[in-house]
Amino acid sequence: MPSRLAHPQALDDLLLYRMNRALQVAGGMVIRLCEGRFGITRREWRVIGALVQEPGLLSSQLAERAQLDRARTSRAITSLVAKKLVRRATGTGDRRQASVALTDAGHALYGELFPLVREINQSLLTALPDADVALLDTALAALQQRAETLMAQAELPKADRHRGGRGRTATG
């Protein structure tokens, strides 16, 4: 029997759609933890996670690492600074170049939240045998690499999320 993923016939057979559905359900648990218990958004969580791995990034570098656009990254940084979880230090030569790092409170929040998020991830993986988890890890790395290659080669118009898409017109 051919794989639904290899030969999709409907929306429910598409890889990206199925991955998104799993992310929406499981990711919802992470969002509830972030917002409900820790008072941060999922974007702020991504910024905090990136800063744990690479402290002192410039905001533009942080946007790239967190895979957010610069405007959303800037808003997340501003919010995290207000919450005293992140500090911003401007350079002496160019005040627009600001490095960003976690405060002690930011590190403490990460230390509390990461084990909870890790538990959600590990609990999801219990649905698979260990050998399949290893295979999934390899497959995800290959899919990420392929997606990056496709994106670099693609000649696609930029999305206009405010108007529902680029080039669409309303018809009667």
Automatic annotation (TrEMBL):
The answer on whether this UniProt entry bears the keyword DNA-binding reads yes
Q: Which GO terms describe its molecular function?
A: DNA binding; DNA-binding transcription factor activity
Q: Which domain of life is it from?
A: Bacteria
Q: Where is the HTH marR-type domain?
A: 12-145
**Keyword Transcription regulation recorded:** yes
SUPFAM superfamilies given in the database record: Winged helix' DNA-binding domain
- Keywords from the named record: DNA-binding, Transcription, Transcription regulation
The record, for InterPro entries, names: HTH_MarR-typ, WH-like_DNA-bd_sf, WH_DNA-bd_sf
- Location of region: Disordered: 153-172
Protein name stated in the entry: MarR family transcriptional regulator
Q: What organism is listed for this UniProt entry?
A: Caenimonas sedimenti
Q: Taxonomic lineage of this organism?
A: Bacteria, Pseudomonadati, Pseudomonadota, Betaproteobacteria, Burkholderiales
